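Journal club side-thread
Mid-discussion, someone asked how the predicted structure for our own chain would compare to the paper's figures. Pasting it here so we can look after the session.
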Amino acid sequence: MSNDSAARPDSAAPDLRALIEEIAKSLVDAPGEVVVESFDEDGATVLELRVAPNDLGKVIGKQGRTARAFRNILSAAGAKLERNFELEILE
């Protein structure tokens, strides 16, 4: 095994940001209005997902299932990278 895991977490947030952005763009009617920003807060990397107001329901999903799926992806990646990721969906 290589010892590159120390360098990997620093580059993980941009990759996950791009992943969440691409998935969200494929779900909404206005992909040009999808923006994902990431920043560190209280030891976790927070990803803020912004979509057009009409697309908010599409990224949340019925009973929050789509939002939960986004969070599951971040949780699985976070476990692998030994980091905490949070997703905030904004209008």
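Post-session note: Strands lie at 35-41, 44-50, 84-90.
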